[in-house]
Structure formats: C-alpha cells, structure tokens
Design goal:
Helix content: 25-40%
Bound molecules: adenosine-5'-diphosphate
Structural class: alpha/beta
Shape: globular
Number of strands: 24
Largest sheet: 7 strands, mixed
Length: 487
C-alpha cells in the first residue's frame, strides 16, 4: 500500500456518500488550528438533505454488508488499519493541525485507531449466539445476534480519530453500515480516515461521511426511520436532547457523556507512580479527555509532598504548537474554552484556592494567536468550588485533601457523573472495597489509563449508557433474535 497524499484532502470540501465524494452545495466550514488561528482546511456546511442522502446510501448497502461473513468484513477492516499505519505521520499532522495536541499524542492516537479496527475485525468473528435447553424433547431454543442496521455516529473533537474507531470498528464488524458526523472543529481527521477506508475498498455506502450543522444533521438522524441506532460522544446537554428525540421512534442509543473523574491517593500509595500517573492523565490532550482527572483527592498526610511533586513536574511542561518538536502541551480547543477554564480558576482563587503553578491565559508571544492556558496546579481547593464540581476540560489540576476513606468516597461519589475514577493504594482490602464502592463505570487502580480495544469503556449516572470496547462494544451494534424451534 502506498501512502496517500492526505494534504490534498483537507480542502476537498466534500461529503462522502455512497462511495463517492460529493462536493458541497451548501458552503464550507473553515477548520482552524487552535495553536495559531490559521485556517487548515474546509469541509461542507451540510445539513438535513445531505444527512438524508447518506442515510439512504447506508440503507441501500446494509443488507449486502450484513450478509457477508465476519471474516469477509474483516478483510476490509484489516486493509483499512494497514493504510492508517502506512499514513500515520500524515494523519497525525492533520490531527494536530486541527485539534492542537502534540504530534506524539496524535501518532499514538493514529496507532490506537488502527488497533481498534484490527481488534474488532477479529472480534466480529466471535459474535456467538446461544442454545438454551427447552421444555420439551422436540423443542430447541436458539439465540442469534444480528446487526442493528444503519447506524449514525456522532463524534467529538477531543479524540477525532479514536472516537471514530471506537464506534465505527464495532459497528462495521457487527455488520452495520454507518453514517459518520464528526465535530465541526475536527472534521479533517474524519475526512482522512474515510479516504483511507475508500482506498481499503469497502463497498459503496458502507461508510458515509457528512459534516455541517450539528443540530440539523442530528435531527435527521433521530427522525429518519432508516437509522436504527445512534452512537454519540459529547456533552451531557446534547446527550439529553438525543434521549428525548429518541423516544419518538424508540431509537437505540449509546451515549458517552461528561465526566468528573476523581483521582484518589491514599497515604500508602507509591507516590512517584501516583504523581507520574496524575500528571500524565491530567495533562494529556491539554486536559481535554472524557476520562481525564477532574479533581485530585490526596490524603492529608502526603498532600504537601504530592502537591509539591506535581507542581514541579507541571512547571517543566513545554507548551506550544503541537507540530513543534518537544512540545508536551498544546492549546485548548478554542478561546471560549480558555475563558471558561480561567473563570473557574479565578473563582476558586477568590474562594481561597492557592495557585502553585500557572493560573493564567497565555497571551504573550508565541502564544498570542492561539488558545493557550498555562498548565496549572491549585491547592486548598474544596469540593464546594465550581472547579471541583464541573468538568473543567483544561490543563488544571485542583488538589483537595481528605482524612478518611469514608470521607473521600462520599466526596468522590457526590457528583451526577460516573465515568472514570482512579485510586492509588497498596492495601489489597482497600483496592477492592474502594473500587467496588466508587459509583463510576471504570476504576483505574494504581494506573490512570483506561482506553484499550478489549475493555468496556463507558459511564453510569449522567455519564451515559452503553459501552465502547470489548465484546460489550460489539453487542451495542447487535440485536439478539430468539428462535423457537419445534422439530
Ligand atoms: P462538546 O462540548 O464536546 O463540543 P457537543 O455535545 O457540543 O460537545 O459535541 C459533540 C458532537 O455532537 C459534535 O459532533 C457536535 O457537532 C454534535 N452535536 C452538537 N449539537 C448537536 C445536536 N443538537 N444534535 C446532534 N449532534 C450535535
């Protein structure tokens, strides 16, 4: 396979529908590099009409795609993953240019995308059914899994590649055709991934891409009866809109929504490991990770040491344009995000929090044209402060101290969200008791990284429903059919 000239794609300004690129008839959205405000490409500003056309194309391709064996579908998926690997450098540059994260993180993301697609290419082969003992000798009970059907995928801007793979790979492996709607801030990664899928030879209509007006496209997804399932990652606010809209047709939904992840450090923890994990997770993607740490709860006996160690590491982070060598922290997604993060920080400071490092917007050269915020560590934070209650989604580590296991469990669970939590301790009893009592869909024990193809990623409470990854992620795109046989 030869590397594709992906840079030609960023200005293509076309939807991908039924196996062909359809130039925009509805204007374009400029895609901006958050590091310097430059326009890096454009995509169609499409709406309901384009979404309907893409759904129709997916619908036409559905029966044939579902009829192929999982092994046949896997051939296309492996070819896609191989092309993603061959083009990883290019893909990573596009991702960083529109999203801001350091190139090294974009390269890891490209590798993750390939891994998810490969893993599901194989897992599709294990979509087992069941036979269940019946009540009579001449009866048989069979349960067979079948693809849900045409699936719409709505993805966010923080992981523009991973989110497509985490939804698209299981959907395709299950035998569903897809219509993808990426976030308007980061549609170019989607354009590139879809172009590579086209090269991999997927049949026309199996993968379709539309970009543009989110609420119009979203409404078409929810009201078009040909769409059988919608998988969404984004804000809780939009997730709730989709739940309401799904009622009319009892549309199946998977939702990965906001989070408020606690990172709990007990006094017996390996402090070096805890500090490394805390900084690694919190400042990945400039703090814009769904399962990113929101608040660090540190036992009072070690809080001072922990805070000092974290602040020291954070102070040394190199901030800048993610395309530049050695940069560890890029910009946040836009100026609105900078303003929101700063507001929460300033409010916390007024209420008594102390800035250990950072704490301001970066506006001097070379940051003035981008949306940069200085990596920040706050101590003296209390859980009443907004910075502890809301999903910050920026490079800020608020540190709260606690004195007992019971207290910290109550504090950590006192949120309407329930995506991820992290615990650092060497006490085996505590590992189990605390993990079991934390009201979150995922718990990282002595580790703060979670997203891998084989594990079920997802949240409880207002963080969503459904799981991505593992056999659970495949089941999200399958119905089960019970067949009662009389011989
Ligand atoms: P974020 O805060 O991450 O931008 P959003 O929920 O606004 O979260 O966006 C996540 C995805 O949902 C994006 O692709 C966005 O375009 C899309 N989106 C936004 N509003 C709607 C809507 N009303 N219906 C469907 N999708 C939407």
């Amino acid at each position: 396979t030869s590397p594709l000239n992906l840079s030609n794609l960023v200005n293509r300004n076309a939807h991908f529908i039924g196996g062909a690129w359809e130039p925009s008839t509805s204007g374009a959205i400029d895609v901006i590099n958050p590091a310097n405000g430059e326009v890096v490409g454009r995509v169609p500003n499409g709406g309901a009409a384009q979404a309907a056309k893409a759904i129709e194309a997916a619908h036409r391709a559905q029966r044939e795609w579902a009829a192929r064996t999982p092994a046949q579908r896997a051939v296309f998926m492996h070819a896609w993953a191989a092309r993603i690997r061959d083009n990883a450098d290019h893909l990573a540059r596009i991702l960083t240019s529109e999203q801001g994260k350091p190139l090294s993180e974009s390269l890891e993301e490209a590798e993750g995308v390939a891994m998810f697609i490969e893993w599901y290419a194989e897992e599709g082969k294990r979509a087992y059914g069941e036979t269940i003992p019946a009540l009579a000798r001449n009866k048989r009970i069979l349960v067979i899994p079948q693809p849900v059907g045409v699936t719409a995928l709505i993805t966010p801007w923080n992981y523009p590649g991973t989110m497509i793979a985490r939804k698209g790979a299981p959907a395709l492996a299950a035998g569903c055709t897809v219509v993808l709607k990426p976030a308007s801030q980061t549609p170019l990664t989607a354009v590139a991934l879809v172009a590579l899928a086209q090269e991999a030879g997927f049949p026309a209509g199996v993968i379709n891409l539309v970009t543009g007006k989110a609420s119009e496209i979203g409404e078409e997804f929810m009201t078009n009866a040909q769409v059988r399932k919608v998988s969404f990652t984004g804000s809780t606010e939009v997730g709730k809109l989709l739940i309401r809209a799904s009622a009319e047709q009892v549309k199946r939904l998977s939702l990965e929504l906001g989070g408020n992840a606690p990172f709990i450090v007990f006094p017996d923890a390996d402090l070096d490991a805890a500090v490394a994990a805390a900084v690694g997770n919190k400042f990945e993607n400039c703090g814009q990770m769904c399962n990113g740490i929101n608040v660090m709860y540190v036992h009072e006996d070690i809080a001072q040491r922990f805070s000092r160690m974290v602040a020291q590491k954070v102070a040394s982070l190199k901030v800048g344009n993610g395309l530049e060598e050695g940069v560890q922290l890029g910009p946040v997604i836009d100026h609105r995000a900078v303003a929101f993060v700063d507001k929460l920080v300033q409010e916390a400071v007024q209420q008594g929090a102390k800035v250990e490092v950072g704490g301001s917007c970066l506006t001097a050269t070379p940051y003035q044209k981008g949306s940069f915020y200085s990596p920040t560590v706050l101590t003296g934070v209390t859980t009443e402060m907004r910075i502890a209650q809301e999903e910050v989604f920026g490079p800020v580590a608020p540190i709260v101290t606690f004195s007992s296991e019971e207290e910290v469990l109550a504090l950590a669970n006192a949120t309407p969200f329930g995506l991820a939590a992290y615990v650092f301790t060497k006490d085996v009893r505590r590992v189990f008791e605390v993990s079991e009592q934390l009201e979150f869909g995922m718990v990282g024990v002595n580790s703060a990284s979670l997203s891998v193809p084989q594990a079920p990623f997802g949240g409880i409470k207002q963080s969503g429903q459904g799981r991505e990854g593992g056999h659970h992620g495949l089941e999200e795109f399958m119905e089960i059919k019970y067949i009662s046989l009389t011989l």
